[in-house]
């Protein structure tokens, strides 16, 4: 179908937190930017009736007389504060809820980050294990009809992570931004009956961190809300800037960016389950905020990561009361791993226990791998066999799905697997079910 290895396919992984895109065969994605969009409604905001109708139609994707909204995608566009700009994610529970934004995100990745014409490159898209048939067909339609791609392939996140570590069978624990998913992969196929997911992901932990800082009276100032002026060499004065028209969602987006960095710098999973008494006199770690104030973080460094293992800890974080229901229903990581393995056939359980793969941005947290292995050793029946694998390189953990796609799409033996444009024209979008299992 294609001559030799000169395919130069493009791999796109649209995650709940960031979108990764780049050329197959490379070892890291070229474009990495937030998978959210800022939008401003192009309507007279002072006409309440129109604004009312507008909010209704925004909720209803089938409403065709949509108001014109201007979308802003990418690091630069989102980094710039605009009046009345809301920040919205196109995904709900990992599944696309707003195709218009996804289209804009893809477009930004192709035309502005990679500077390519999508009509000249086959596309490999990573999709969540829970993706539905109509979503897959919709993605195929968009790619072939709008971007005119020559060929397409949809691959499951867990399978790509498995390939990235060179395995055909493994249990993939993907701690992403929006959720944590555990999926068993056997011989390159996801075993759907064993897929479990929990709503506790990196963004949830970031929110916990934000709330716990706020209860200590620490104010996180978004970068747009101040400017620093040098009064004497090395001495700065911070001047507050006031933008009354900034939306709540944009303020939160900017605060989360800072808190997320605090989380990545100071948090680590505790070696033993967290309890207030033993962690009360732990030494503080300092962190300098963008506005120059230095904050001290103590027990929260261990408490917040431990929410992954024990979701009910959320109830002890002031301000997170609205997550109570979620804390009761969500399971900790070790329980999810055990439950997922027990849903699989007996004869592959041993193999799954011995190759548990950690992936996703949240998985690069310090000590997470060691703690998960320790908890599983205590609970699992095959104690001697438990092995949690995670790449030592945090970039690889963050981008494992993308890297798996990059390896897969550049294999010579994979080239006959593509769902080509001519097949699409002949059989229609539903044929993707047969081409991409």
From TrEMBL:
GO biological process annotation, one example: long-day photoperiodism, flowering
Cytoplasm in keyword set: yes
One Pfam family it belongs to: Actin
Keyword Transmembrane: no
Subcellular localization: Cytoplasm; Nucleus
Domain of life according to the entry: Eukaryota
CDD domains: ASKHA_NBD_Arp4_ACTL6-like
InterPro entries in the cross-refs: Actin (IPR004000), ATPase_NBD (IPR043129)
Keywords in alphabetical order: Chromatin regulator, Cytoplasm, Developmental protein, Nucleus
GO CC, one annotated term: Swr1 complex
UniProt family annotation: Belongs to the actin family. ARP4 subfamily.
Job description of the protein: Involved in several developmental processes including organization of plant organs, flowering time, anther development, flower senescence and fertility, probably by regulating the chromatin structure.
Record's protein name: Actin-related protein 4
Species annotation: Kalanchoe fedtschenkoi (Lavender scallops)
